[in-house]
Amino acid sequence: MPATQATSPFQPLLHAGLLPQDDEEMQLRKSLLNLLACLFTLSTLLWLAIWWHFSGRVPPGMAAIPALAITNYALFARHRHFGAYRFLQLGLLLAFPFVTQWTLGPTPFTSGLGLWALLAPAAALLTIGAVESTPWFLAFLLLSAVSAGIVPQAADPAFTTVHIVLVASVLYPLLRFAVSQRGKTRERLADAHRQLHLEQERSERLLLSILPAPIAARLKDHTGTLADGHPEVVVMFADIVDYTRIASDMPPPKVFEMLNRIFCRFDELTEQRGLERIKTIGDGYMVAGGLYAHPTEAHAAMAALAIDMQAALRDHQFTDGLHLELRIGIASGPVVAGVVGRGKFIYDLWGDTVNLAHRLCTEGEPGMIQCDGRMFERLRGAFVFAKPILLFLKGKGYVPVYRLRNPRILAVPRRRHTPKAA
Fold first, then answer.
1. List of residues 6+ apart from 372 with CB closer than 8 A
2. Cβ burial, residue 63 (10 Å; 0-12/13-18/19+)
3. pLDDT at residue 155 greater than cutoff 70
């Protein structure tokens, strides 16, 4: 809705001369001057009617005043030269009362007529600005002083009252229209600010769903490469065994719905343990711990998460009766973590630790949680492991692998859940 839109039958009159490229402030200034021209024309016609009623005549020069005002308005509506239109309209407002007084002389009909000139600086204030209206106000003071010196006033309370009422009838609607329109503009700005704040919050939530909070904060103020080295990070890969074959007889939407339900459950478990889901790859799921503000006991948290994930898939009601198993590989060690890409960026991890965790997963057996030696050394006192086996891993040769069974204690304390900072 344009700033100058008004719920009145005079709306087309107020919108005359507006241009498509006008901003809200310019639209309001033009509409204010249009309203002023219309009100001034009606008021001068009423004043001339009162003059004619009491004197029986209308001076030709005075009759030209409303004609000049409406002609100026019509030229603006056609040619849209706002600067000339404004200058002529303000000049007419300023000159009309003083020229009339000088022409007619000291008569009761001109008592208080100088009040009309106050419309010029008031209109300049609304349609030009505070600083630019100052010369019009000084001109009003100067002409008032000159008129008082050369034309004696024949005071008549009745006609003074008439002029005050006519000027107020122009000035009050003009100021009221300006205030109401500027109020609507402020409301629209406030609403736009609220919408912008909501969109910012949505963007923040979306960013935090993709990136860890510290990386998201840095990304907003950073345009270069974002990568950090971490000396001790726990990395887990898990994939659903034969999910493609199991889901081959299911309709595609059902396949996606099931996978999405499983991964959403994994996300909940990951967040409860204070770990970071890095990405999903098909039916594979990657998690890391020990990055940034992750718990100091990231090794234990990751082991407990792996057991929780297996337990979730053993609930056949959750899996709609499907028998699903996970292969899980966990490794611990140094990694490099950072943001890849620009427009469609992702947060990812690199390094030998990542490769080892992936190999432990892909070379594992269904239902097994395979860990490297560093995980075993960290957790041997808190978790039960099977006897180590030698497993040939591509690019690694034979390495000892430790299969995690269950915790030695009844439960591993969960990290207290706190919402992510927006």
1. 330, 331, 332, 333, 356, 357, 360, 399, 401, 402
2. middle
3. no
Q: In whole angstroms, give the CA distance from residue 350 to residue 229.
A: 10
What confidence score (pLDDT) does residue 209 get?
63
**Within 13 Å, how many C-alpha atoms sit on residue 415's CB side?**
24
Backbone angles phi, psi at 98, to 5 degrees: -75, -40
Each residue's pLDDT tens digit, 284-329: 999 999 887 665 689 999 999 999 999 999 888 888 888 889 999 9
- Does residue 113 contact residue 161 with C-beta atoms inside 8 Å? no
Better-predicted residue by pLDDT, 221 or 42: 42
Q: Strand pairing partners for 349?
A: 337
DSSP letter at 81? -
- Strands 346-350 and 326-340, by their bridges, are antiparallel
Burial of 347 (0-12, 13-18, 19+ CB in 10 A): buried
Instruction: Find the length of the chain.
Output: 422
Task: Give residue 48's pLDDT band: very low, low, confident or very high (50, 70, 90).
Answer: confident
Helices (H), 151-281: 157-210, 213-220, 243-246, 252-272
What's the N-to-C CA distance of the chain in angstroms?
Answer: 33
Give CB contacts under 8 A, 24+ apart, made by 159-162: 159/108, 159/109, 159/110, 159/111, 159/112, 160/111, 160/112, 161/112, 162/47, 162/50, 162/112
Is residue 422 within 8 Å of 205, Cβ to Cβ? Answer: yes
Vertex 30 angle, CA 28 and 35, to 5°: 90
Q: Pick left, alpha or beta for residue 420 (phi over 0 → left; psi -120 to 50 → alpha; otherwise beta).
A: beta
What's the confidence (pLDDT) of residue 422?
39
Does the reported pTM lie above 0.85? Answer: no
Residue 213: its pLDDT value, please? 66
Q: 66 is written with which tokens?
A: 């409303």
Place of tokens 């769903």: 209
In 3-state terms, what secondary structure has residue 414? coil
* CA-based nearest residue to 243, from 227, 261, 268, 267: 261
